[in-house]
Amino acid sequence: MVIAADAGHDPAPAAAGAGSGASGSRDAGSGPRSSAVTTVGAPLSRQSVRAGGSGLLAPIALATVCAGYALGAAVGWGSSRVALFMGDFGLSVAALTAALSCFVYARASTSRFRPAWLLFSLSSLMAACGNAVWGWYEVVLDLPVPSPSLADLFFLCFAPPAIVGLLVLAKRPVTRAGWVCLALDSWLIGGSLLTLSWSLALAHTAHAADPEGESVARAALSLAYPLLDIVLVSMVLALHFRRSGINRSAVNTAVAALALTVLCDTVFTSPLLRSTYHSGQLLDAGWFTGSLLLAYAPWGARRRGTQPARPGSAVVRPTSRPIAGSLAALTPYLAAAVCTLGILYNVVEGRRVDRVVIFTGCTVVLALVVRQGIMLLDNISLTQELAQKENHFRSLVQGSSDVIMIAAPTGILRYVSPAAAGVYGREADDLVGSELASIIHPEDLGGVVHEVRRFLAASPHEEPTTRIECRFRSGDGDWLNVESTVNRHQGGLLLNSRDVTERVRLQAQLQHNAEHDPLTDLPNRALFTDRVRRALSGRRSGDSGTAVLFIDLDGFKAVNDSIGHQAGDELLIQAARRLADSVRAGDTAARLGGDEFAALIIGDGARDQGARECQVHEIADRLRLTLSQPYRIGASEVRVAASIGVAFAEPGITPTDLMRNADLAMYRAKAGGKDRVELYAPQMQADVVRRSEVAARLRTALREGEFALLHQPVVHLAGGTVAAVSAQARWRSAQGILFTPAEFLRVSDDSDRTAELGRWLLEAAVEQAADRARAGHPVPVSVRLPAGRLLDRALPFGSIEALLTRYGLPSGALMIEVADSDPRISFDELEQRLVALRRLGVRIALDGFGSGYAAINALRRLPIDVLKLDRGLVEGVVESARLHKITSGLLRIACDLGMQSVADGVDVPEQVLALRAMGCTHGQGMAFSGPLDEYRLRRVLVRGEFPVPGSPAAQPVLTGGSVPLLAGSHGETPIPPT
């Protein structure tokens, strides 16, 4: 039954373990850490505990089966027949289980160790067949097993596949010298064991098997099994010292199975036990356990390897084992010691040293010498290679522009590369021995310590490196911005540092440029908005005393146009300096763009809102006065005013809404006369909404054609004849009522829509005037246009000429009334435009004379044909003697300049009499007719005149036809004329 025991042992589990990859999974649960890393303990998840509990079932079942077999063998199984059956067929079943397990695992495996599994399956199958043949003789035939027999053939075929499989599992050498060393190590182990075992028992066994030397086969058979055991033990030991790191758990399980099997074989080979051995004894339990361990090894290791790892846990690989490495280095010397023990045993026993022992010992010594020679050559080669690599890396470190430092766990610098002299301005030797904390800026030290502790507490596999930015002290005492890449190094830290001071300065400069105005260096809109947001969301979020001021410089465009943009930039710089000097230390002054500035006034926590508003109003008024002081630009003195809008914070208000409110207040200040301070009121927002709605309605009306053109007659005050008609636009409501667009044009900020309305009015008036002329009513038409619109490129002179040409309107049949001119408009440009229009045959009237811009300067410079009195002069001309004298004087000026005059808003007969007496030539108003549609206008033109109070002889109209006028009364009620 020695062979049966050998068959029951199968090193396949070692192969199975090496190929299953379970070692990594086992290591995922636990593993040693570097001494520099603080061990972090964490409980396993419930899933891992459940997986671990289920994984214990298989080992427990295996231990129970093996213990049951051992117990049965210890009590003799109850009968000799059962003992024989269990001793033969029981071991056969165990070996067959190992064969099937290895075969199935080999089929499922895809690793490079798959051939080893197939070999282990074949060797276990041979052992199962050998035990089955043995049981056939002892149990079925009830005969002693012949020697030799078919069972011997199966048992002898067991060892070669197992040995080759172990060679497949071993870590393969990469050089020829490595292969030679592997062969020498195997022979050192096997030869030493052969020497010792031959001296102790094998020589006696060979002599006892064939005392007369007649049966060579019997003697060879008796020695074959122990020799195969020696070879297996040699391979197991070689595999243990050279095994692959893959699936170490399975390899350890296989080594345990092999050790148990070889131990049983050793006990069996003793002459005392062998003479009394029979199948079913306790010794069979060892072989049985070895076979089941072989069957369990791959699957048990695989089960442990597939346990779920904790989420986020790192797989920590075990470090190399110094004990195993030391035993591997001592293997040649232990082999020589074993050979010496074998020879000494023969000498002590007084026996002649056997030739086998001498030959084996000599070969072992020779292998040891060759092995040591190879090791010596390898050591010399490794020493040279190590020196070469050391020089290489020393050159890299010393030649690097980065500073490499090694700090001990205590924080003391143990190494500093020579680059420190160029980067830090300090010699490396001066830094070695000093504390790392001593060269770090005190303000950065706390953050650095916190980051280092966090880094050392983390898993090396999850976070192998970290990056730290701090300030280091240089040799001249300055602080340098340093970026360091930190690694773990023998319990301490390895720092690779570089100077990033210039980069940090550049980033700070870029950040400053991104948040500040390039001209004035004040905070820009983005930074100002951020500070407003922080003021509203910080500890003062409920402080309603926080205010935002929007500031616009009135007249700044005139500065740019008159003395140039460079002077305008200088004015903005001086204004920004005044603004920054005027606000408090905790407040913010900013430039939003163009000539718009802003200021953030932080609240002081006062509960009296009225007093706070007065205080902020005083600050804003002081800013207005400061910004309105004269500016010295070169040799010139420039004056601008400031319109300021103020908005206070409210609970829950957003920065955008607060700034919008201040902007609305600023525009209200500009609309109210400029150079003033305006506080925000909710009505301002309502006005904005209303203007937006009106602008939308205006766009819709223009697109849908909802505007209608009316004409108001201009009557000669002497005879009542119709001298001209004034074109006026009306908005047709959904109920059919016509409304004047004056209100819509005042509230609409859409200059494109008002320009489009002006173009429509001009073209429609010219077209209808041409139609009336062709119908026999050649009455001139006047169109009222703002002076700013005349200078707008959207209405070039060519378009007016094209209209006159297209509709065939004769010269003098169109008059442009210049109205509502902005004082900032250049008189030179306006004069050039009006002169060009007169060349086209267009007559020019000055609308609204006596108020606003229609002043003496306009009469002096502009080419005016007709002077149109403002209705404010006409309404009180009868009741007010003072107004009567003013109107009379203006009419005398017009007469002296040779201009025609038209009174606007003549609504009662008394006004007609008074104006005619003063020398006014023409008038329009309700005293004659309101605005008329085309049908009613033609009826009036057919009649030709209106009744005039008094009856002086009719005077001829203006040369070239009636006076081309426009404008009429813009204050009439929305009720259409009848």
Automatic annotation (TrEMBL):
CDD domains, sorted: EAL (cd01948), GGDEF (cd01949), PAS (cd00130)
Residue spans crossing the bilayer: 56-77, 83-105, 117-137, 149-170, 177-203, 223-241, 253-273, 323-345, 357-377
Keyword Transport: no
EAL domain location: 691-945
Residues covered by the GGDEF domain: 544-682
Region (Disordered): 1-40, 953-978
PAS domain mapped to chain residues: 389-459
Top-level taxon of origin: Bacteria
Protein name: Membrane associated phosphodiesterase
Pfam families: EAL, GGDEF, PAS_4
NCBIfam families assigned: GGDEF (TIGR00254), sensory_box (TIGR00229)
Residue stretches of biased makeup (Low complexity): 1-36
InterPro entries: Biofilm_reg_signaling (IPR052155), EAL_dom (IPR001633), EAL_sf (IPR035919), GGDEF_dom (IPR000160), Nucleotide_cyclase (IPR029787), PAS (IPR000014), PAS-like_dom_sf (IPR035965), PAS_4 (IPR013656)
